[in-house]
Structure formats: C-alpha cells, structure tokens
C-alpha cells in the first residue's frame, strides 16, 4: 500500500496481504509448496530457529502464501499479527493451551461453541485446568468470578445457537484490572463487522472456514493477537502441536477474503429480511437475531458491530419429532449441515439444553439455526414456508 492515509475495510480487503511487485506483477499471491527449505550456509541454518515471523525455514512453519494471508487478516482485525492454523478448533485449542498451566482457572461463556466446551471439560480438566462457565450477559459483573488463579476470560459474541450479545468492553475492563486476558471467538462477525481490539480483546480467534473462505471447501482457523508477546506465545504452541495448513488452502482463503465485504453485505440484508419474515409466522415463538430492534442484545450489537452476518436462530412453538423431520428433511434450498459461512443456505435443528450449565435454556419449543446464503431471499422464504406447511401434515 502507498501512503499513510487511513483506509476503510472494503479497500483493505482488496489490497491487504498482497505483494504483486515481488511476484512479477501477479495479482494474487502464488501458491508455494514446500517441506524442505535449503540454506546457503551454516550461519543461515543456525539462525533459522530464531528467525523473525515471515522467514521461510520449514514447510510446516509456513511459506509466503500463508504469511501474506496472515498479514491481511491482522490488518483487517486491527491486531499485531495473525497465525493461520488447520481449523477453527485448532485455533481455539492452541490459543487456550498457550496460556494455561495446571492449577489455572478460566472463565468461559455458557453460550460458547460446543468444541470449546468439549476441550475444557475433557482435555483441560484432565490436566488440572478448572473451567467455570458464566452467564454470557454478565458484563462487568464478571469481576466477581475472577480468582487469583484466573488467567483468561473466553467470550463469544453473539453466542453459538442462542445468540446472546456480550458487553465485551465491560468484561475486558474488569478482567484487565486483575491482569486477566480476554479472548474472543470472532467468527460470526468475521474480520470486518467488529473491531475486537478496540473493545479491549487481547486475542481474537476465528474459524476461517466460515466467512473468510466463504465457499465451504477449506478448513482453517486464525489467531490474531494485540501484542507481539502474545503472538510469539501462541506461535510456540502452534509449532509444538505440529499444526500446519497447506498453501492451497491459504490461497483459497486469500481469494475468498477479497469478496468478503460484498458477501457480508448480502448476508446481512438477506438474513434480516428472513428474520423479520419469521417474526410474523404463527409457527415461530421468537427469533434470535441481534440485528432485530427487539432483540435483548440489539443495543450492544448496534454499539459494537457494523453489520450482521447470515447466521441466526429461531424457536418454534412445541412440535413433535415427526413434524420436525417432515419439515427439515424435504427442504429444497436449505441444506442440513454443521458448518456455515458459505454461499449456500443451511438449516440445523439443535437443543441448547444439552450443553448449558451456568444458565438454563427454558424454551419448550424446537430451536432451529439458519445460515442465510446468497440465494434470492424470496426463494428462501418460499422454501421455509413450504416447510412450515409440512408441519401441519403430520
């Protein structure tokens, strides 16, 4: 980039992490495959272990294909630096493991992504790290849960499945007053719908599989830190774990990143249109979307976010299992699957009761999570309407 003029996200999405002049004017960074890297001298070989980020030393540690993607994500999120790993779960696991030791206590939002909870309740517990889950709406009152051995607060805003918004600045203020780091799963917002480091977050984690890639064909996670110290701490853990991501996946993520802005504008518009339509359906008890004015977290969303993605949930009035199956088994446009963030729309029935411990999920109706893709919203609404009609035939 030329000059020091501040640039808006749409411009950064096009230009961040590109070095065309270094690659014969090629617009997209090339795919560089490597395992072995050759060194010209003993001195150069001996310096490899202490090399600075961005230096190619071994294929598992990355090539410029990965380094340029990391540079772009860090610039978009406003962090010091980024590490790309093999999946969102790998990003979660490596980041938490980098910061904890036996005897530590961590605080995790009760609305967190299930694999995060699974890591805490199995692996971390086995090695003497205690996890305490907290009400996602706790805000600054989290100060009352912080102990002398608390090392991190894990946030996710909005939360998986139930979409509670968290007051991240208030949580960060309380945590930092006790020297505790704040980590945020920022996958829902992607790198451009919120600025985690402006809110006091120390480390931002994303499943790049979702909106960064955007085409449902790559597994990837990103770890972005506010400081060089945290970046190096996380990098040591990633290297220790043996995690690696291939250059082809990094190339696809780079390409997906360039259209992230226009895709998210469509996800935002289409998602809100479908959410508002669902609010008027007699089969629907309530819609869980922070972009709706009557959502409990709307004020926080409006303060901290510049838009919404296409992921949200709604709760049906009580139905039977056969009714649910008759609805979701015969959708024409909504596929049924666990991921999201791609160009296609998805539908996923779920039950938060099974995974909540600090708070209760008291809804008696079926929760259904939707990802609104890039199809025409009138067609998506017609598909949902036909699904609701099928509820009446069982």
Automatic annotation (TrEMBL):
The entry's keywords: Lyase, Pyridoxal phosphate
Sites bearing N6-(pyridoxal phosphate)lysine, chain numbering: 210
Pathway info: Amino-acid biosynthesis; L-methionine biosynthesis via de novo pathway; L-homocysteine from L-cystathionine: step 1/1
Keyword Lyase belongs to the record: yes
Cofactor(s) listed: pyridoxal 5'-phosphate
An example molecular function term from Gene Ontology annotations: cysteine-S-conjugate beta-lyase activity
Reactions mediated catalytically: L,L-cystathionine + H2O = L-homocysteine + pyruvate + NH4(+); an S-substituted L-cysteine + H2O = a thiol + pyruvate + NH4(+)
InterPro entries the UniProt entry points to: Cys/Met-Metab_PyrdxlP-dep_enz, Cys_b_lyase_bac, Cys_met_metab_PP, PyrdxlP-dep_Trfase, PyrdxlP-dep_Trfase_major, PyrdxlP-dep_Trfase_small
CDD domains per record: CGS_like (cd00614)
Pfam families xrefs: Cys_Met_Meta_PP (PF01053)
One annotated GO biological process: transsulfuration
EC nos: 4.4.1.8
Family designation: Belongs to the trans-sulfuration enzymes family.
Official protein name in the record: Cystathionine beta-lyase
